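User: Here's a structure from my thesis project, written as structure tokens. My advisor, Dr. K., wants to see whether a designed sequence matches the one we expressed. Can you design one independently, without my sequence as a hint?
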């Protein structure tokens, strides 16, 4: 169960890395930003819930 929390944190870090990379490249698409943000929030909420319990 703790493994899933670590996967969620690593996924969040990778997502933030992609945001920074795309901001540098200035080729960021609003659709992908919204989609990525939803995925990030979902993963973070699940991993946080598992980490607490």
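Assistant: Designed independently from the structure alone:
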């Amino acid at each position: 169960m703790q493994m899933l929390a670590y996967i969620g944190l690593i996924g969040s870090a990778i997502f933030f890395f992609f945001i920074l990379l795309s901001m540098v490249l200035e080729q960021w698409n609003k659709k992908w930003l919204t989609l990525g943000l939803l995925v990030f929030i979902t993963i973070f909420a699940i991993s946080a819930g598992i980490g607490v319990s």
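When you compare it with your expressed construct, this may help: The chain has one domain: 2-52.
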